[in-house]
Amino acid sequence: MNEGGAVMNVLVIMSDEHSHQAMGCSGHGIVKTPNLDKLAREGVMFNQCYTNSPLCTPARASFFTGRYVHEMGTWDNATPYDGKMEGISHRLHEHGLAMTSFGKLDFHPEGRYPGLDAPRPKHRSQVDAGAFFRSSNQPRPKVEERFKKIKVRQGDSYDDGVRDEAIEWLKGKKPGDESWMLYVGFLHPHFPFLTKQRHWDDYNERVKDIPEAAKPPFASLNEPLKSLRTHFGGESVDEETIRKSHVGYYSLIAEMDENIGQLLTVLEEQGLKEDTLIIYTSDHGEQLGNHGLWFKCCMFEESARIPLIMRGPGVRQGAVEETLVSLVDIYPTVCEALRVPVPEHIKGRSLLGIAKGRQDTGREDYVFSEYHAHGMPVGMYMIRYRHYKYVYFTGGYKPQLFDLEADPREMHDLNRNDSVSDEVQAIIGQCHSRLLDVCDPEAVDTRAQAFQEQTRISLGISSYTQADPASVGGGEKLPVPFPEYMNADD
């Protein structure tokens, strides 16, 4: 590695719905990710990275802006980020650089993003109205169709096109060129699990059973989480479907890993490896039936904890870093790598110093996540502090507390009983004070629900059957709403 030189280039690869646990380098016993494993051996794996919201559109807004969802009003998949708050591309543009993007961004299709060159952007073009009916406690329309789409795929995927376009772009670069940033957004391993035959055959042979956490009883579900289970049809999914879901999910991870490997090979062939910081992460994870829940939208480890691997000039090799970090930290990391001033107003902090072995004494001792979207009738917030996870629900429900050292599968809520120890009470108090440092959870939930109701009315959506994106307005394409900003002048 070029220890003394400046990082000239940045490559950010973001997958969709990849849990931290589902990698070889994180200790999974079945999933094979040789290219991510190599990246981790040659760099740093951040072992405690979390999404700031376990849902596509809000999470990507936090990644791009370094801000929390409640600051931007990007509450759900109906109100995507629109560029009004400064993001990575804006900052680079101000300093004479550009961000090139291939693949999924999930921004507003009519937004403005100075400095962003996206030849084939994938934005949020349909209104996912599920968040407008959060309190209905009904299954999501057509949710059962997702489980019927677990099968072998014929032909190329969307990601194959993204890979090829990114490779062609990289082939046009050479050492000594002007600094650049490239973003590659893969859809895999997100549902539907349409996989290549050879990967399906491999994992269908290897996946014999389902995890114990995917088998009832699901003691960690409170009433709001039970509503989420109903929303995704969790009660009707049999064990063979759960097993097949694991087969499909692992197969798509293997396919994604191969695509990443091809990108890394071209980077090396072009002589760009020594001068490029590579960041791999995902927007959120995937529940796969664990705790009776599916997809994402909750704060359990499978959904909220995500991969983050960094390799580049001066970055430690083969290190596993236990500092608590989250998606908001990527924006300032990119800025520091490209020698662009880091904005003062954002929530994240650069990870480059930590990656190189330095301490960050100014970093908060917790990370924060929030959820305000479909299936969850109340606001849900997470504080990860020390080895504890605190999950707060609005509406008077008891918060949950899990000790991830003693209970990594989150099977035992320490705050479940009416009587808890003084030690548990103290930890709950410490976690809650940190939550209040970030926001007033009840006020934020009131804001979110009021905005979602106003948006539903303005769009003329009256029936929950319209919550499926494919059937909104009886097939009529509705205008994508713009988010409501709390600090639009910042």
UniProtKB/TrEMBL annotation:
Signal peptide: none
InterPro entries, A to Z: Alkaline_phosphatase_core_sf, GAG-degrading_sulfatase, Sulfatase_CS, Sulfatase_N
UniProt keyword terms in alphabetical order: Hydrolase
Keyword Hydrolase appears in the UniProt entry: yes
Molecular function via GO: arylsulfatase activity; glucuronate-2-sulfatase activity
Coiled-coil intervals, chain numbering: none
Domain named Sulfatase N-terminal: residues: 9-338
Superkingdom assignment: Bacteria
PANTHER family tied to this protein: ARYLSULFATASE K
Family: Belongs to the sulfatase family.
Name this polypeptide is given: DUF4976 domain-containing protein
